[in-house]
Structure formats: C-alpha cells, structure tokens
UniProtKB/TrEMBL annotation:
Biased composition (Basic and acidic residues): 7-16
Segments forming domain EF-hand: 110-145
Organism taxonomic ancestry: Eukaryota, Metazoa, Chordata, Craniata, Vertebrata
Keyword Calcium: yes
Single GO MF descriptor: protein kinase inhibitor activity
A GO biological process held by the record: protein stabilization
Metal-binding as UniProt keyword: yes
Protein name: Calcineurin B homologous protein 3
Family under the similarity heading: Belongs to the calcineurin regulatory subunit family. CHP subfamily.
Amino acid sequence: MGAAHSASEEVRELEGKTGFSSDQIEQLHRRFKQLSGDQPTIRKENFNNVPDLELNPIRSKIVRAFFDNRNLRKGPSGLADEINFEDFLTIMSYFRPIDTTMDEEQVELSRKEKLRFLFHMYDSDSDGRITLEEYRNVVEELLSGNPHIEKESARSIADGAMMEAASVCMGQMEPDQVYEGITFEDFLKIWQGIDIETKMHVRFLNMEAMALCH
C-alpha cells in the first residue's frame, strides 16, 4: 500500500513538472524501458537501435540534445553521461503539443521553450550564439544525404541562409561588416510566424519526435 501510494505521488509530481498526463507518463515509461533495456538510465549508445534515427543526417545532434545539460535544466553547458526517466521526461516535454486549455501566455512560453531546444542543437559550443560555422555544419549534415548537391554548393547554401538570417536581425549589412552570429533573441525573430508547434510534437505510441527532427 505504501509503495503504491509513493508511486502515485511520484506520478503526480512528474505531471506537475512536465505537463504530461499519467497515461502519457506511463506510455513514455514503457518507451524509456525499451530504450534502456530495462535499466534505470539511458546512455547515448541506447539510441543506436532507434529506426527513425538511423538514416537521419543530424542523428548525432538529436541524440546529443537528450544529454545536453541546458535542455536538462542542470547547467549552462556540458553533457550528462546518462539520463534517468525524469530527465527523459524533461526532454520529451519540449515536444509536448500545445494544449487547448493553455492561455496565450502559456502558449508563448511553450513555443519559446521549443525554440530554445532547437537553438541549443545549433549552438554546439554553448556560447549563446550560432556561428556561421555551426550553422554551416548543420546545413551540410542535412544535405549530406543528397547525392545531387556538392559540398561547395552546400557551403554556399549555408552562407546564403546565414546572411539572410543576419539581415533579418540586423537590417541590410555592408559588404565588409562582420556578423558574429545569432543570439537566442535573434533566433526568436527569425522564427517569428513559423509554425514550430506542429513540427515539434510527439506521438506517444511511436515516439515520432525522433522522425520529426529531419
């Protein structure tokens, strides 16, 4: 009786922290146990057997995001060696769809959190800026599966995308002006009006969040 009471208390606590319902927590716990092989923690190698990730060109960045201390809300930088179920729920909560019961302020906060998670995927050195090199690396990785695009073309595309982003944030740039990179506030401006809510969600039975990070 005591153990059952303790377990239900724990679920209620997790509901409050993550916004997931008890049913969703139960389904995610089953997925966690599948990934961990019934162990109490997950390590990076546990993601090797996720089919949706196998062919994803930014697979390493998606997996890294699960262990990023910034996403785990455990610090401004660094990576965890392993994560427990509560950590796993914290990460999955970024993919939680917008709830119809949310007010405008809660919707805006949810959107901001999703974009912060995405920003951290680009900002690989945790310096609070996305540099041209970081942005180019991601674009090149995304284009790496396309045999019709040469490396130089991928670089040009990345450079063009970065200059466009910079112009959104800073207005028209002079030819000799150096842009140091995108801050999170800049990132919010760039994504203004783009529907991130429907792109970052999770279907709880098959953990589609993995597939949606293409």
